[in-house]
Amino acid sequence: MLGGSGSLNHMVYARGFPSDYHEWASIAGETWNWTNVLKYFMKTEHMTDTNIVNNPELMVYHGRGGAIEVSGTNEVMFSIKKFLQAFEELGFKTVPDMTYPNSIGAGCFSHTIRNGERDSSLRALLNNANSTSLHILKDTFVTKIIIENGTAIGIEAVKDDKTFLFYADREVILSAGTFNTPKLLMLSGVGRSEHLRSLGIDVVADLPVGSNLHDHAMVLAFLVADNGTCVSDEAENSMEAIKYLYDRTGFLAKADNMAAYLPLSSSEPTVPEFALYPTCIPQFSPFRSGCLTLGLNEDLCTELHNLNQEYELVTIAAVLLKPKSRGKVELNSINPFDDPLIYAGTFSEEQDLDHFPRLIKMAWSIADTNYFRSKNARVIKPWVEACSNLTESAWIKCMSRAMVTSAWHSVGTAAMGTVVDGDLKVLGINGLRVVDASVMPKIIRGNTNAPVVMIAEIAADLIKEHYSVSRTGTNLNNMTIGNLTASSMPNISQPNINLADVIENNDMINSSLIEVEITNVEIITTTDRQSDIDDTVNVA
Question: Where is the Glucose-methanol-choline oxidoreductase N-terminal domain (predicted)?
Answer without folding.
Answer: 177-191
